[in-house]
Amino acid sequence: MTSSHRLLLENAQQVVLVCVRGERFLTGSALRSLAVLEGASVVVGTDGLIKAVGPAAVIQSQFSGETFEERIDCSGKCILPGLVDAHTHPVWAGERVHEFAMKLAGATYMDIHQAGGGINFTVEHTRQASEEELFCSFQQRLQCMMRAGTTLVECKSGYGLNLETELKMLRVIERARRELHLSLSATYCGAHSVPKGKTAVEAADDIINHHLPRLKELSRNGDLHVDNIDVFCEKGVFDLDTTRRILEGGKKMGLQINFHGDELHPMKAAELGAELGAQAISHLEEVSDEGIAAMAAARCSAVLLPTTAYMLRLKQPRARKMLDEGVIVALGSDFNPNAYCFSMMGTFDLPVWRPS
Ligand SMILES: N=CN[C@@H](CCC(=O)O)C(=O)O
Ligand SMILES: [Zn+2]
């Protein structure tokens, strides 16, 4: 009996496999020798999964007599894996274009934040928006990301800060996970900013005593799938102690630690993340040498966000040093109302890789 397959990508000039032994990541000098097949074909099965990759002649003889719903001649073309966007804030209402003028006039990210703008502005608008409204704009944003080659997106909540709106955002992410054709990793980021009227300690207590237990219950019932916990660990936001308490609370309920650290000020966030067994830390423009070494030893990924450093006129993170020291380095667009970038290819063009 002849088998039928969904797709044959035939005779590509290159198929980039990245790795051949099923490694979950490459570090250091291994990154200089990516696995690339020349003159190769790829077969995709009816379940959407890759059935075979190999030299075009081998695939041709192996699948001779079998049928394909579609064949694409890839001569002269390169087949790449889907891009992974490891850091986004894609669920929100309320444009912040007016802040660009403030920044051009000299205001810093924190000036705007402390004056009640920035994240706080988005929180007010997101609290007022309906779940349907949030889903519609989120869906459009994800479609723009897919068109730019992204197939897996890490999506954060964090523009609610109160339990009600954080859950509304997580439900929107959950719905997209179920209805749309791309992979999502959901991050609870209830500690994205200190809500008006609370201190950081009070906000941390609220998260630990009310948000996390409710999330645990909803996850246990299968109503929500949350993968990660995030905190904005920054001077004037959550300090190292409150960050530690919140991350430990999330870890205890089975969430992976994946947080914002060492962005605007050196906070020793990298050292904390390494100690807590964090999966990833984002930003790291101000990471210390000790923090880099600790992250390498702990196999903690650095998620670098070149777009943000460019937008906020920060120094770029020390990507080259991190790579040379064996840190796992990933990239994110950091799509958010302040960094309007859907495209991972856009992040590759920024000068983060140049030796400093
Ligand atoms: N630094 C904190 N959070 C975001 C910005 C979110 C916002 O400004 O709305 C970031 O990763 O860049
Ligand atoms: Zn962020």
UniProtKB/TrEMBL annotation:
EC number: 3.5.2.7
GO cellular component: a single term: cytoplasm
Cofactor dependence: Fe(3+)
EC supergroup of this enzyme: hydrolase
GO biological process, one term: L-histidine catabolic process to glutamate and formate
Location of the Amidohydrolase-related domain: 79-347
Keywords: Histidine metabolism, Hydrolase, Iron, Metal-binding, Zinc
GO molecular function annotation: imidazolonepropionase activity; metal ion binding
Pathway stated in the Swiss-Prot or TrEMBL entry: Amino-acid degradation; L-histidine degradation into L-glutamate; N-formimidoyl-L-glutamate from L-histidine: step 3/3
Recorded catalytic activity of this chain's protein: 4-imidazolone-5-propanoate + H2O = N-formimidoyl-L-glutamate
UniProt family annotation: Belongs to the metallo-dependent hydrolases superfamily. HutI family.
NCBIfam families hit by this protein: hutI
Protein's recorded name: Probable imidazolonepropionase
